[in-house]
Design goal:
There is one protein chain. By secondary structure, the protein is mainly alpha-helical. 43% of the residues lie in helices and 9% in strands. The chain has seven helices and five strands; from the N terminus they run αβββααααααββ. The strands form two sheets. Strands 1-2-3 form a three-stranded antiparallel beta sheet, with helices on one face. The protein has a two-stranded antiparallel sheet with strand order 4-5. The longest helix is centred in the middle third of the chain and has 18 residues. The chain is globular, with a radius of gyration of 16 Å.
């Protein structure tokens, strides 16, 4: 189960990023575009944002628009016919959903003073895990990777070393084929983490 025991859905708040996150109104749109590429969707979707919080909206040709990062991501996974990315078992699907909710309710809306707690809790959770949900790579890993990338890039080397389970997971996910489209790599060398622009 994700840290914080998330059990209910909360609205997406994309512009309330940690101060370590750059406030970029189209960050979610870039994430969705990268997810489409990872999934091998040939025809790019049309996106817009709505409201002050710039919530992503998928302009669906088959009816009503699909609203929200998590909802759109799950829709894209189903459209690409990759249900395994949502979890194989009912328990895995619940854990995937909890991590997706964690991403938009906790990570995207964290304050600068929350970063250390988030990293500490995530580091503890990942102590005996390769992936966030079950024993396989899921959309939860992809969206959490996208969401935590700005935090990892902006951490000092010593802070990154304190969170080696997060660093290990992060490095594993960023090297997953076709996941990292719009983000710069973070290079891990000899148990130390360096951003590609700082070595």
């Amino acid at each position: 189960m994700p840290i914080g025991g998330i059990r209910e859905f909360c609205p997406i708040t994309l512009d309330l990023r940690c101060s370590a996150h750059p406030v970029v109104s189209n960050m979610a749109l870039r994430e969705l575009s990268s997810l489409e590429k990872y999934l091998g969707l040939k025809k790019p979707n049309k996106y817009s944002t709505q409201g002050d919080k710039k919530v992503p909206v998928l302009q669906n040709n088959n009816g009503s628009p699909v609203v929200g990062l998590v909802t759109i991501a799950c829709h894209l996974v189903k459209e690409a016919k990759h249900p395994e990315l949502l979890g194989d078992t009912a328990e895995d699907r619940a854990v995937v959903q909890q991590w997706l909710e964690y991403r938009v309710t906790k990570l995207d809306s964290c304050l600068k003073e929350d970063i250390k707690t988030i990293l500490k809790d995530l580091n503890l959770y990942l102590q005996d895990k390769v992936y966030l949900a079950g024993n396989q790579f899921t959309v939860a890993d992809i969206l959490m990777y996208y969401g935590i990338h700005p935090l990892i890039v902006n951490l000092a080397v010593q802070e990154k070393e304190q969170h080696m389970n997060v660093t290990r997971w992060f490095d594993h996910i960023q090297h997953y084929p076709s996941v990292r489209h719009h983000l710069p790599p973070v290079v891990v060398l000899r148990n130390r983490v360096y951003t590609s622009g700082h070595h």
